[in-house]
Amino acid sequence: MTVKDQDPQVEVQSPAFTSTSGMQAVQVKGEAASSSWLAWLRNPWGATAIFMAGYVLLFILWTIFHWGGEDRSALISDVGYLPVSLFATLCALKIAWTRRHAKKMRIAWLILGLATFSNFLADIAWFNYEINLQVDPFPSLADVFYLAYYPLAMLGLLALPAKGHEREGRAKFVLDLLIVLVSAWLPIWYFLVLPMTKEFGGDLRLQLLTAAYPVGDLVLLTGLLAVLLRQQIDASRKALGWIFMGFVIWLAGDLIYSYQSLSDTYTSGGGVDGTWLLGYLFLGFAALRSAYLDSEEAGQKRAFGLEWFARQLPFVSSIFGYVLVVGLIIAGLSQGSSIVGILAGGALLSGLVMARQMVEIRENQRLAARLREMTGQLQDLTDSFAQRAGAREQEINLAAAIARQLAELRDMESLLSNAVELIQERFNLYHTQIYLLDPGKRELVLRTATGEAGKEMLRRSHRLGVNLTSINASAAVERRTILVEDTLKSHLFKPNPLLPETRSEMAVPLLVGAEVVGVLDLQSTQPEAFGPERQPVFEALAWQLAVAIHNAILFAQVEIAREEAAAHTRRLTQANWHAYLDGVALPEHKSYLYQAGQVLPLTEPRPHGAQDNDLVVPITVAGGQIGEFRLELENKILEEDLDLVNLVAGQVAQQAENLRLLEQAARYQQESEKAARRLTGQGWEAYLSSSASEKYAFVYDQNEG
Question: For residue 646, is it within any domain?
Fold first, then answer.
C-alpha cells in the first residue's frame, strides 16, 4: 500500500518494518525526506507550523511592547492562546487519524491531542468569563479543563512506544523516577503549595484548587520523566527533543505563573504567557516530526543527548534535593518555622537513594555472577577449542606421518595394504578399505581392506557399479566427500553383514587433479565420528594417498617400459656379437690365458662350469653376457678384490663393445666402398655399351678446346 501526503515530493510506504512493540513503522522516500533535517516541514502542515512559529514570536514581542494599549492586554492575551493550542491539537489528532502510523503511537497522540484540546476549551471558557462576562475566571469551569490537561498529558506521554525493562530495570526506573519527583516536589511544596494553603486557609475549596495546579505540574513531570528514562523507539525518538522542550517550557511557565499568582504579581499579557504558547508550538512540532522520518543516524544522535541527560538526572536531582533540604532546614531553624515536612522529605529522599543503591548493588552482583558464569563458559569453550585444536593438530600430524611412509613405497600392493592398516591403526577406526576404478571406469574394484571382513570381500572380488546407489560410488561420481554421521538415520547407507557394528562412515574420493582414481572408505563404531572438523584431515590424507597411488602406477609403467627396453637392448647386443663372431671373419669364441706374466691365446675355450677354487665373473654389455673372467684361486678372495675384479670386468666389457663397434663400422665401411665401386663400374659399362657407335675425343690447346 502506498500513501501520499499532501506534499507531492514525499511518498510514504507502510508497513516497512516492525518493532518490539509490534508496531508498523514508516519509511519515507524522496528527495524531500532525505535532503535536510527540516524536510518534515516542507508540506502544508509544515507551512502552517512555520506560520505559527512566526505568530508565537510576534506574541512574545507583544508581551514586551504591549502594542494596542494596556486596556486590551487581557483580550489579546486570552485570544492569543487559541490559534496555537488549536494548532497543537490538530497536529496531534492528525497522527491519531492517520492509519499508516502504528497503533500505539496513534493512541498516544490521540491522548495528547485531547490534553491540548482540553486546554483549548479552558482558554475559551477563560475568555468567556474574563472578557464577555467580566467576572473573575478563578475559580470556574475553566479550571476543570485546565486541570484535566495534566493527567491526559501524562497518560499520552506514558503511551508513547518505548522498549520494555527487565525486572531490575523496572525497579531502577521506578526509583529514579521517584527520586527526581521527590527532589522536584520539595521546592514546589515549600515555595508554592504551603504558602497557597496558608493564603486560602479559610476556604478548603480554594486550598485544594490552588494546590491542584502544582500537583498537576508534578503529574506532568512524571510523564515527562518516564519518557526520558525509558528508551523510546522508532518515530518517538525523533520527536523526543521537541516533546522535552515543549513540556519543560510549559512546566516552567506553569510554575512561574503559580509563583506570580501567589505573590500577586501576575498580569494578563505578561512574559509568562509566551511560555505556554511556546509549549503548544513545540508539541505541534513534535507531532509533525513523529510523522516524517529522516535518516536514522541523525535521530539517534539527537535522542542520545537526551538519554544521556536522563541517565544523569537522578544523580543531579538527589544532590539538588539534599542541598535544598539542608538549606531549608537551616532557614526554618533560623526563622522558627516547622521543619517536620522538610525532614520527612529528606528522609523519603534518603530512603529512595538507599533503595536505588541496593538495587544497583544487587544488579552489580547479578552482573558479576553472570560475568563469572560467562567467564567460566568462555574458559570451557577455550579449553574445548584447545582440545579440539590439539586433536586436529594430532590428526594432521598423523596424516602427514602416514603420507611420508606411503611416499616411500613404489609397489602398488604394498602401498595399498600399508595405507589401510596405518589409517585404521592411527585413527582408531573400525574398518578401512580402498576401491580403485577399473580401466573402463565402470566399476569400483576393492583392492585392499582391513580385518577378516576385508579378506572375505577380497576373496569374493567385491566391486561396486559407478552410480549413486552407494556411499562409495556416490563419492566417485560426485567427486566429493560423502559423510554419513549416523547410519541408522541415513537412507544412503547400505548395511554390510560382514561389518555389523558400523555406525558412521565417510567415503573420500581419491582425486589426482580432476581425475578420480578410487575411493578411500572409513568406518567407525561411533556415530558422528567423522564430523565436519575432521573432514579436511581425511581429505588431505586421501589426496596424498591418491598422488602416491598415481605415482605407483606411473612407476610400474616406467619399470615395465624399462624392462622391455633393457630386454630389447640385450637381444640386439647378443645378436650383434653373434654376427660379429660369425665363425667366418672371426672365430666364434676368443679366449686368452694369463699365466706366468704372459697372455696366451687359447685355441679352444675352457669348458663351462667352475671348479672348486675358480671364480667366474661375467662380462656383460647392456645386461647381456658376452664372456666371462675365470680366476683360479689359491686362497679365498677378499671382498675388495672381488670389487676390483668386477670393475675390471665392466671396463673390459665396455672396451670390448667399443672395439666391436669400431671394427664392425670399419667392416661396414669397406663393404659399402666395395659396393660403391661395383655399382660405379656397372654404371659406366652400361653407359658405354649403350653409346658404342659414338666416339668422344677432346684436344686442349692454349686458345680453345
Answer: yes
